[in-house]
Structure formats: structure tokens, C-alpha cells
Amino acid sequence: MSVAGRYECTTKTPLGTQKGVLTVVPEGESFTGTISGDLGAMDLEDGTIAGDTLRWKMTMTSPMKIELDCKATITGDDLDGTIKAGFFGTMDLKGTRIG
């Protein structure tokens, strides 16, 4: 199954649970996309695909600027991953494909 699609996601953060929609657009072994939610939208950068595993970076600008390193595995319609947020540590990312 392709990793392409839109995923309704939740992330447990120091600011509480954040909800968003992650859009993945594959281009061979790489991908582009966005995540949009309560804190605005971010572009997915340097996206790579290895089997069912995605890796990408994002730059959060609000409430403060911080680089995020992300990794997720797609199993069927489920997304399970982590977001490393510098000194905030690693946060769990969960999602379900919605389209």
C-alpha cells in the first residue's frame, strides 16, 4: 500500500495534545507535504521513504522557532511515529488515514 494520503494526527506535546492533518505526497523515494493544525501549517522538508517508513524535518515558528526531526511508520491506514523537538525531547505521533 502506498504511503500517500492525508492522516488525521495527534501529538503529545509539552503544550498539551496537538491535532493536525498530515499530507504526504510521494515522489519516488522522497516526498513532500504539509501538516496543518491548531498552531498553523508547516511544510515537510527533506522527506524520504524507505519501505513503509517516512523521515522528514519541519521548522516550527510558533510559539517559538525549533527544528523538528520526524519519523513514522505506515501500517495499513495507521501512522505511528515520533517527533524529536530539541530540548523538549521526543514526542509520540499517531494518526489515521482519512483520504
Main attributes of the structure:
99 residues; mainly beta
**Helices and strands: which structural class?**
mainly beta
Q: What about the largest sheet?
A: 8 strands, antiparallel, barrel
User: What is the total tally of β strands?
Assistant: 9
C-alpha Rg (nearest Å): 12 Å
Mean pLDDT, all residues: 93
Helix content: under 10%
How are strands sequenced across the largest beta sheet?
Answer: 1-2-3-5-6-7-8-9
Strand content: over 45%
Task: Spell the H/E element sequence.
Answer: EEEEEEEEE
Q: Given the C-alpha coordinates, what overall shape results?
A: globular
What is the CA–CA distance across the termini? 13 Å
Could you say how many structural domains there are in total? Answer: 1
Q: Identify low-pLDDT runs.
A: none
Topology:
Layout: E1 5-13, E2 16-27, E3 30-37, E4 40-43, E5 45-50, E6 53-60, E7 66-75, E8 78-84, E9 90-97
Antiparallel strand pairs: 1-2, 1-9, 2-3, 3-4, 3-5, 5-6, 6-7, 7-8, 8-9
Question: Please, could you describe this protein's structure?
Answer:
There is one protein chain. The protein has 99 residues and is mainly beta. Helix content is 0%, strand content 73%. The relative contact order is 0.23. The mean pLDDT is 93.
